[in-house]
Amino acid sequence: MYYAGIDIGSSYTKAVIIDDDGKRLGAAVAKTGINFDEAAKTLFNEALKKAGLKKDQIAMVVSTGVGRNNCSFAQANKPEISCIAKGSYHLHGASCMVIDIGGQDNKVIKLAADGRQLFFKMNRKCAAGTGSFLEEIAMRLDTGTDKMNKLAAQAGKSVPINSFCTVFAGTEIIHQIRENQDINGIMRGIFESVVKRTLEMAPIDDTVVLSGGAVATNPVLIDLFKEKLEQEVMLLEHPQDVGALGAALYARSLQQGAPDEQK
Amino acid sequence: MPAIESTKILKQALTGYFQSFFDETVPRQKVAWCTSVGPSEILTAMGFKVYYPENHGALLGASRASEQYIPVANAAGYSPDICSYLTADIGAFKKGETPLTKAYGIPSVPKPDVLIYNTNQCREVQDWFAYYAKEFGVPSLGVFSPWKVDDLNEDQISYVAKQMQSLIPPLEKISGNKFDIDRLREVVALTKQTSDLWSEFLGLATARPSPITFFDGCIQMASAVVLRGLPVAVDYYRQLNAEIKKRVAAKTGAVPKETTRLYWDGMPMWGKLRFFSDLFERLDTCVVASTYCDSWIFADFDPADPFRSMAKAYTKIFINRSETHKEKVLIEMAGKYGVDGMIFHDAKTCPHNSNSRFGMPQRITKATGIPNLILDGDVNDLRCISEEQIITAAESFIEQLTHVPRNARA
Question: What residues of B are in contact with residue A117 (Cβ under 8 Å)?
Fold first, then answer.
């Protein structure tokens, strides 16, 4: 049998199709836009196409993410933290701390050796440290996050940003540019502030695995996490899809009649 | 969720209370405004009618009228970072409006002849009452309680009792009534009875399934707050408790399929009571107990020693205690009510009653194994509350609890 997970996120929607063994057969991702259900349908069809499957071959669809209640064709929905936890454990297979940086939410999730979710922390009601922060700053500087990554990678050291507030961080950056500070360092400082905000959320006491759209598209973040934590960090395979994968795994366990199974 | 029938009687009692401030068929009694955990027994005993601005603050929040009024106070120089009871209340006053009109048919808040505050809950009440003292041209008198107390000592009790006694001469002057210690004993005895019955009501939530939720408590506590020291409060809780005991006997749960039990620490989010009540019911979760509702249990009240016992009871309230003491109480409560998890509300404008800012949730989880969830929010300011974030966090938390051994379960 085959199962689908649809993660309707605040920025992007992701769809993943798996088989009974949890093998990823097809996936798709695109901007969520203003019609959540439509985005979900489009991406579900796209993922089906990539998997070479038809709708009626899918035994169950589970939705997650901010738009999880807007997916008309999902038989069940699950909160995204649980899905990220489940997807991460499926990929990592050992105890770990998952750091997920999404569009508007950051999560730190602690998983036990058997995959149980022991603890989680979300960002406060603030965009600081999220993917939205990076998008907002890129827009403010009239550039793209690709270019910001390239410049940041060339920096010797970061020019620090102090502000918690996304808007005032933008103002601080403008001030740094005006002061002729090293532009590469400023870019690195922007990414560093995301890492700092995230590490302020909870103590990290295990192997770190990274997931989420922001880490998938901003490789500088991975280096900065390594540097700040002074330990290796692992980027999960297809990091942006981890929540959707978790939802598909939930679909599999729900279909098999084990609603609480998380492994 | 089954409705509590007695609530109709509560509504009548509260209507009677509020309308009595404007009853022109009887000679006008002097009016005292008092903080909700203040020495209102002295005021009642001296013939004042007592009005509680914090109750008004909660009503502004629960009716969501606070949304219109907080910005008015902000614009007048009262920061969005200070108590949102205060800003909602002052904003409403500035606009000359009150939800009491719709709820109880009275034209305005009753005009005070004196304002009495106790800093046992927070220091901001002094500034709140100072505003009205100026507006109405009446005195504002305070009891300054020792703060963050651990085990209360004799010096601290005497310090507060003496301040309470020193209120008598100015209150005699304002009321025109002579202080009568026996009348105070009667009022203290009524508060003690109210408090015991309120404590019994809250304790009924130890039953499985719980017959009541924290959100029921937030409604039912109105009598313990504004009618305490009056016979009507005692009568009300007798009736209410009889109704709830029937639920316990019939094993009727406030949440029909109670599978998870939670504890709520901190203030309610008044404008979101229904939201939370529906959210947790959907998740088959009952929030069975809270520090907030327990704050109106005054076990130390003793008519034989009214001043000292009031000093003791009012200084010992949870919010006014040390972190060490609070931690001990929360662990006891978690055990008493057999909760699976604890929610800590970090209220943006109420730091005094947000207990998640000095590592307490983490320490309690470490000591008990009971997981915690910290929710960002506020008492009254809806601008500080994100429903979507709360839903995600709450759903994830309940999901997580299914994977954690429920060592607190009976």
Answer: 399-400, 403
* Residue numbers in B near A80 (CB within 8 A): 392, 396
State which residue of chain B sits closest to A10, comparing Cα positions.
B388
HSE, side-chain direction, 13 A CA sphere, residue B329? 22
Is the peptide bond preceding residue B351 cis, with omega within 30 degrees of 0? no
What pLDDT score does B1 carry?
63
CB neighbour list of residue B402: distance below 8 Å, 6 or more residues apart:
A260
For residue B250, tell me if it sits in a domain: yes
Which CATH number covers residue B351? Answer: 3.40.50.11900
Domain A131-198 has CATH 3.30.830.10: no
Q: How far is CA B63 from CA A106, B29, B102, B273, in A?
A: 33, 29, 10, 10
Q: Which residues does chain A have within 8 Å of residue B403's beta carbon, measured at their own beta carbons?
A: 116-118, 260, 262
Distance from CA of B314 to the nearest CA of A (A): 34
Q: Which of B215, B217, B235, B239 is nearest to B227 (CA)?
A: B235
What does the pLDDT look like over A181-235, one tens digit per residue? 999 999 999 999 999 999 999 999 999 999 999 999 999 999 999 999 999 999 9
Please state which of the four CATH numbers 3.30.420.40, 3.30.70.660, 3.90.228.20, 3.40.50.450 is assigned to the domain occupying A2-123+201-255.
3.30.420.40
Give the number of other Cβ atoms within 10 Å of residue A122's Cβ.
Answer: 24
Same domain, B334 and B217: yes
Q: How far is the C-alpha of A218 from the C-alpha of A148, rounded, in Å?
A: 9
B103 Cβ neighbours under 8 A, 6+ residues apart: B18, B59, B63
Are B384 and A125 an interchain contact pair (Cβ–Cβ within 8 Å)?
Answer: yes
Residue B408 lies in a domain: no
A80 reaches B (C-beta below 8 A): yes
Start-end of H helices in B316-356: 323-337
Task: Show which of B181, B211, B235 is a domain's final residue.
Answer: B181
Check CB contact under 8 Å for B399 and A82: yes
Residues A127-178 have pLDDT tens digits of: 777 888 898 889 888 999 999 999 999 998 999 988 878 888 888 999 999 9
3-state secondary structure string across A45-60? HHHHHHHCCCHHHEEE
Collect all residues of chain B within an 8 Å Cβ-Cβ radius of residue A122. Answer: 389, 392-393
Question: Quick check: helix, strand or coil at residue B353?
Answer: helix
Domain containing residue B202: 184-401
Same domain, B274 and B396: yes
Q: Which of B181, B205, B235 is the last residue of a domain?
A: B181
Place of tokens 């019911």: B281
* pLDDT value of position A165: 80
pLDDT at B182: 98
Question: Tell me: the pLDDT tens digits for A77-118?
Answer: 999 999 999 999 999 999 999 999 988 889 999 999 999 999
- Residue A125 to residue B400, Cβ atoms within 8 A: no
- B62 and B162 in a single domain? The answer is yes
Give the Cα separation of A44 and B237 in Å (integer): 57
Residues in chain B predicted with pLDDT less than 70, given as ranges, are: 1, 404-410
- DSSP letters for A15-50: EEEEETT--EEEEEEEE--S-HHHHHHHHHHHHHHH
In chain B, how many domains are there?
A: 2
Domain with residue B17: its CATH number is 3.40.50.11890
